[in-house]
Amino acid sequence: MLDTRIINAKIIDGTGTAAYHGTIGIRNGKLVLGRAAEEESAVAQVDAAGKTLCPGFIDSHSHSDLYIGSDPETVSLCKISQGITTQVGGQCGSSLFPAPLSKKAQMLEYLSGDVNQEQLDAVEAFQSFAGYVDYAKSQRLPGNFAFLAGHSTLRMATVGYENRPATKEELEEMKRYLREAMEHGCFGLSSGLIYVPGVYAPTEELIELCKAMRPYGGIYATHMRSEADHVVEGVKEAIRIAEESGVPLVISHHKICGPRNWGASKETLRLIHEAIARGVSITLDQYPYTASQTGLCQCMSPKYFTNGPVAAAALLKDPKMREKIRKEMTEVPCSYNSSYQNAGGFDGIRILSVPRTPQAVGMTVSEWAKKCGKDPFEAYFDLMEENECAGSGAFSCMQEEEVERIYLDENTVAGTDGLVHKKDGVAHPRAYGAVVRSISEFACRKHLVSMEQAVRKATGLTAERWGLCGKGKIADGYDADLVLLSEEELSDRADFLHPSRVCAGIHTVWVNGAVVYQDGKMTGAYPGSVLLRS
Description:
nine-stranded mixed β-sheet, six-stranded parallel β-sheet
């Protein structure tokens, strides 16, 4: 007997082939197709007339792993409500493992640039990947998770914040941690090469780490060393790391930041296709917005963070140091990847979180400075000093034409890069809308791709590139991760003024055969699982 039968559905199966009308069955968390779906009796039946049934969407770029153990409805609503049933977490060099007890406090301080204090209090750190997996499995999970090991976390566990190459012994220790993770089912290694301490690592260190995980089939995902003035060099470095180590590459949230760099995607995509022709496996993930999100402290040079964010904030007590940093932030060309310059100044930087100055949240830095009656640089430095360099912002730095060009590449998949804050807080709308926006914007509204192609970029192609077995397709025996939607109603509704608005047009979401979202609400079911590399 089937648990559920879905009839009269327009089915887009995640392969990119033409949609068809048919019947789908669910039994014991798996999909049943063909005559069995049509003829066997079922406990429940869903009439999907007028709606479209797709595989559950896959978020190729997630940070929700930082919040497992927090309130699952608050943490998961943003993803589940847009049809995301599987997330690949541990991106941009940040993971909660490994964290030796001697380094745990330092590692949590490092994470404070990406999570607010309320979240930080709930964060736990783990000495091994195996320990983290056991913890994750013990929690209530509405959706599925796959995990990467963070390069910055590996460095934090061995080298700390120091601006220097790892010693031979420290590199071997990083390899040992990484091998332990791979042996227990980790999917690969991520790096965040604009963030401290990953920014201090030479290319050769990353090549050696990727070589260590190659026997396990690991994947290298990178937030490149530059997405702005030196984005072409950043792509070349990423390709070199993958090519010399022999591992697949995922370029995280590929974008071109800063007006003076717009158009560079023509060159980056050319380099990527040349490398693919040489045999390198390369995937790009993308969120379809012209504003990015990162730590507010990224306006300053990474050289000030060798002793951590708290020590960097203390430097701002000195007026002479403030003047020096201000000069560095405004000089052209800039000596580092400046989020201030990429956004065109403080008018283009919106404050999303500052734990000790909540009254500034939602304003641009310029607006906050005007409210305080201060020079914008002084207002920014005061925020960083008071909040010990914690807090995040949205940076308006991209061009719509460039976003479309990258999305249309056949190697691009959907990702949110969404950081979840408290339900009523200010955040980047991508957390609640990125995947739906990529489909509704590029397929339904602009007709740049077909609906089938857009769904594939969020399902089958993503599963294929990450090696997520049983995910991403409506096929017999696959996991019953499904989303039932209305193409006419489908749209993202979150914006910077209303960042927690759920998407329109998502009617029902199943994870492993159980309904987790319906009629705009979580159901309280927790059928999600931890996915391990096979």
